Amino acid sequence: MGGLPKRQRVAAYAVILRDGEILLSRLSESVTPDELWTLPGGGLDHGEDPRDAVVREVHEETGLDAVVGETARVYSAHLPGAWREGRRVDAHALRIVYDGWVPVDAPEPRVLEVGGSTMAAAWHPVAAVLDGTVPVAPMVLEALADHRPFQRQRLAAYAFITRGDELLLTRISPRGHHSGSWTLPGGGVEHGESPRTALVREVREECGVEATIGDLLTVHDVHFEGTAPSGRREDFHGVHLVFRGTIDDDAEPRVVETGGTTDAVAWVPLAEIASGERPVLDVVVEALRT
């Protein structure tokens, strides 16, 4: 094989996961006569940044607009005798594999590039890939074996605001995890922001009212793996500071922020929460115990 022409190719790909599925591209019959699926991505143009390349390739192969992380894994494959451009070559493939994600409300994938190396794009169950039901290129299995969800720790502040025997709660929109459940008004603390300042801002954004923040009632935390509103798969650890809060007696809470993770706000009877009639997150139950 030493006399074969040498060809080196650098390509960028993305592992894009969603609720137990992975986004894959099917190689065209001009590449292989057999059904074979691989990660969306492809070769870098001369002078092109790998992250720009993979976003471009994902769009061409699946029609979806992806976001990719800052870091990647690199795989090297030496393929002497590989068939390239109608002849045998001594091939060396460098594959840069990023973690990627698409919005949770992204449309179904479809191939935009005509006459390329991809003939179809689809979501496939990861289990079907791992057990061999879906035939995939070895790179897919390598990337899945190395993949770890993005670790995210989030500090948030929430308000425990009562009116008689009612508690002020907000409902999580379809854009948020635990969609349809009710929780305390509040949200993430920005870098350098005081938790109390953050909570005043969040109550204003979610409920349209000005809150006065009192004592810290309890600290609650939750740890789970799931899909973030951005579409990124995350190993999520939330630390929740729950403060007592008050609002003016004549204040009328209403959702102000549009397109966020809150789609309703209401005064909820405590008896309705205790009976389980109203689905609430654990942070609400924890706050009621204090």
From TrEMBL:
InterPro entries: Nudix_hydrolase (IPR020476), NUDIX_hydrolase-like_dom_sf (IPR015797), NUDIX_hydrolase_CS (IPR020084), NUDIX_hydrolase_dom (IPR000086)
Keywords: Hydrolase
Domain Nudix hydrolase residue range list: 7-146, 152-290
Top-level division of the source organism's lineage: Bacteria
Annotated Pfam families: NUDIX
Residues in coiled coil: none
Gene3D superfamilies noted in UniProt: Nucleoside Triphosphate Pyrophosphohydrolase
PANTHER family hit by this protein: ADP-RIBOSE PYROPHOSPHATASE, DIHYDRONEOPTERIN TRIPHOSPHATE DIPHOSPHATASE
UniProt record similarity statement: Belongs to the Nudix hydrolase family.
Protein name, UniProt field: Nudix hydrolase domain-containing protein
